[in-house]
Structure prediction request, 358 residues.
Amino acid sequence: MSKGHVFAGVVRWPGGANMSSPPGTVGGLFRLGIGETQWEQMTSGLPADCHVPCVTVDPHDGNRIYAGTQEGPFVSSDGGTTWRRLEFPHRDLQVWSIAVHPGNANKLYVGTSPLGVFISEDQGGTWHRARDADLADAAEMRGFVNRVMRFAFNPSNPQEMFAAMEVRGVMRSTDGGESWTDCSAHLITLAEQPHLKSAAITVNTAEGMLDCHAIAISAAAPETPIVACRMGLFRGEDHGAYWADFEMRKLSPIFYGRDIRVSPHDANTLFATLSTSAGGATGTIWRTTDAGKSWARFDSATQAHSTMMAVVPSPSDRRVVYAATRKGEVFGTLDEGATWLEAPLPNGCLAVMALAVN
Prediction:
């Protein structure tokens, strides 16, 4: 059996950052041994009333785990057992994404809500703010604050980075994250098509295309980011200047995209999650083994009862993949999808936002 752990980040606002939590709602960071079914809550050094919308495993050191919270970024150097807060000066910002530079373990990136990108060159000791990442709203927001959800690096040129934003689209950096430009104009243009119109919290029907949740770049196509958004999965042609629809709705009756990940073992293999909506009643996992030319269901043995929020392949064992739903269902395969086990999070975990595997 593969060694390692699964980490789940849970927040206590099941309806959104500005909504109160119902009685019994649980937030925090949880850890599970791969192949096991009993979760343990990590509390040592973390805030007492902990909201954890992101968890990141350092690609240079699997025992070093980062977690974003409502009180800034935290780090564990012992595989999640104990935690300490990084010297992040902005306690008024929620941390929704953390990335480690693929070529430099000392360089960290934090994405926040409200929109912002912060960079540390010394593993979180000091920070500076990137330029032009606080993009103006593309639509008049009502009770929702935009956030940076995920970073992706060009594997052949890490100076080029992309970030997915909820609900603001995609932005790009060509100088290692120091400055950013908006890549959302064509997403808005695509929303002129009737089947890509969607407005839930604004009156702007481009909202669904701007509701981006995750972004990934494969070494098989290092200049082509792939974004998961409310309206499906889209690939960014010409470094994100233009976006092309994978047309997942032709394969699946549900197409709300929440996560997209590249296999660390095969650049042509990617995993994605599709669901009915942000608060939907079911979700699915999909896989491509030819860099997106074709897709197939990967989780046919599972029966999710809420939105499939995350899918993560193990960095050490290509057979191992885990996925989680919003309401706390966790599914894992140890044999590349042939069979699945279920390891539900404790009762009350109603807003699972993040999953990671070391």
About this structure: The helical segments are 185-190, 207-210.
